[in-house]
Amino acid sequence: MENAEVKIMEPSIDIYEESVVFITGNTDFNSDLNRLRVLLSIGATGFVGKTLLEKLLWSFPQITRIYMLIRPKGGVTVKERFRCFLQNPIFERLRANHPERLKKIFHFSGNIEDDNFGLNESDREVLCGEVNIIFHSAATVRFNECLKVAARVNSQATYNLLELCRQMTQLRSFLYVSTAYCNPGRKYVDEQVYPTMPPVDWRKFLACTQKIPDDYLNRMADYIKGPHVNTYTFTKSIAEQIVNAYRNVIPIVIVRPSIVTAAYREPYPGWIDNVQAISGIMMEIGKGGISSILGDKNLICDIIPVDFVVNAMIMMVSKSRLGSLSICNATSGVTNPITWQHLGDLTMKWSRIYPTRRMIMFPNFKYRCSPLQHELAVWVLHFVPALFMDLQTLLLAQKKRLVTPIAKKFRQACLAGSFFSLNEWIFKNKSRYYFKELIQNDTYSMLYWNLEELDYDDYVRRHMIGINKYLHRENFTVDSNKFMVTRVYWLWIFLHLCFYMLLVYVIF
Q1: pTM, entire model
Q2: Contacts of 370 (CB under 8 A, 6+ apart)
Q3: Which of 98, 282, 292, 402 has its CA 20 to 30 A from that of 52?
């Protein structure tokens, strides 16, 4: 551990003069996906990474190979995880129309948390000798992650990957996926790298994460995060500083998505495969499990469909230039804003029209700005009904999942996200003009960036159908579960009448 500080080296162009010949030559190359054929995707098993991989194989048949890292998990081998990965429903249209393209995916056993990514020497040589473009979207997005883990995955791994890039002789572009919320202390966020708030030297930070004991480092988190309310945005901000330090030695671009939601159009309308961020909240609203959210209903909720994020990542590769760092705020707030109230109303509307079989209460909730009022509503409207439902389940010996633990889980999720629903940021997005130019001149005619035309009513409809189809795994039909939602509605009305009658009786 005493040598940890020595390992954090200052990026230098001199190091590249012999090993990376292209950097010292013509630096105004066109590094788009129409010319470059070998890719490395870090984070390919995640929501954004998986959607990116599918789009690349679907729209860019000239790509010859896409490498990805997979680690053993839960006792499942790398080989088995890769086999299951290829069977993922997201690749359905590829399996039906171009099954041969799935053979372009190659995997290596590795882990971004390990030294040298856990790669053996032969695998490293393959990557260093062939890769043209790197898409780095791997991250831990848990808001309550301990600082040690968040730093290792979000910051240290990014540094290690950039160090590996020193040996990649064919590398033409490195794209890093950050977050639009990595500068929470600024109301207006432009497409540029800002100093960390509070000022943090990323080299010393990485050295400290290796030297300081885990428990002590995690206790220090609240003192060093500054305006960051969680370790996720803080360590992503540190990662941006690291990436920026390499702009003179590697052609780098950054994409900053806001709140990533289900697909608008591709690979399928409403495609979603995780319950992180707002999609999990929308799912629970549809089940009737959330009756109160701590937030300001009049503020802008900056959401961005995952296929728009993927399209931005692909088009930003063309902006890779040595010596400069291009950034895209992949956000919707400036182009086509929607308030939290409007999003909530649409979520309730379409969850009632297309109800899930897992509905436990009638979908209805309210935003509350007061933490006290919200906490009171949570106990009265969330935990009391949940306790009665679990009591019924236990007394009748039913084989049903208990509701109270789920209510606790989503209470924590809502509290973790309350910072974003109680505050508002203006993310400037000049990159959209560049995207439209690329699409109009047929450079990327297979892509789209028509955010201003996005109809949120239709989009939330697709989103809620996608939740039922891909998360609840229900066979969707227009009239499915209509009788059940009617029954739940009248039960909801009956319980409200009983509550108000009891209240009148107690008062008078």
Answers
A1: 0.87
A2: none
A3: 282
Question: Which is nearest to 31 in space by CA: 196, 187, 252, 191?
Answer: 252
* Encoded tokens for 68: 């990805």
Angle, in degrees to the nearest 10, between helices 121-130 and 157-165 = 70
Alpha helices in 41-120 (DSSP H): 47-59, 78-86, 92-97
CB contact at 8 A, 249 and 17: no
Within 10 Å of residue 128's Cβ, how many Cβ atoms?
18
**CA–CA separation, 116 and 111 (whole Å):** 9
Hey, what are 393's tokens? 């389940």
Per-residue pLDDT tens digits for 248-275: 999 999 999 999 999 999 999 999 998 8
The Cα 243–Cα 235 span in angstroms is 12
Per this entry, what is the length of the chain? 508
Q: Write out pLDDT tens, residues 64-112.
A: 999 999 988 878 899 999 999 999 999 999 999 999 999 999 999 888 8
Count of alpha carbons within 13 angstroms of residue 347, beta-carbon side: 26
